[in-house]
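Example record used in the benchmark description.
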Amino acid sequence: MAHLKSHVKRLLGWQAMSHPPAVPAPEPPRHDPPLDGPAAELLARAKAYYWFHSIDLGNGVVTPGSKSVELLCAEANAIFGPLDLRGKSVLDIGAWNGNFSFEAKQRQAARVLATDHHCWTQDVKGRDTFQLAKAALNLEIDELDIDVPELTPDRVGQFDVVLFLGVFYHLVDPIQALQNLAALTKEVAVVESHLDMGNVERPAMVFYPGAELNNDPTNWWGPNRQCMEALLKLVGFGRIAYQPHPIVGSARGIFHAYKQS
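Model output (structure tokens):
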């Protein structure tokens, strides 16, 4: 489990900062009564896996994720706040445990397709966690194990809203992925990514040939805000709305890329 946690932690892509932004102090631990019956059984099943997302499954059961419920809530509000998902179709690329897929469905999306590949392997067992949480939440969500380069309209169709969260910088060819992203998107894509080169005022992106970023050899790129905005316009999006990450600030960015300007 310790080896797996180390492997998964490297996948996160959080930028190491000498002076990270202040994070609100956690609330004092609650002393909830111990769980019993089905809730205790569900929690025991959840604890058999490594979780990135802390997901409230109800009846006092929260998956033991690296990202807290509070942090995920702040991210969800930043990602979904500008959008009205009622009746929309949503594609979640890189769903992992499924928090944002579940959030989209709970915000009344008509259809959600969760996809992943690297975190749904038998080593990480992300698909097992996704299915456990989906069943516990009793949500109707489609799922597909498919790698990012294979995601095209011919394979999965088009969606009103496409989520591309924490994926860009893990791809050797992220520009081709953005071209596919644009082809998959009817209305808006939401891109969340690690950012670098903030001191450069023109579009720029740094290449990490080894494990320079967080000691993770799967982190390849660090664009700045101007570069990400320019790339999204290059592949066919008309209007880009940027906001810094609600917790780590400008070290990461959230981009709402709209097909119509």
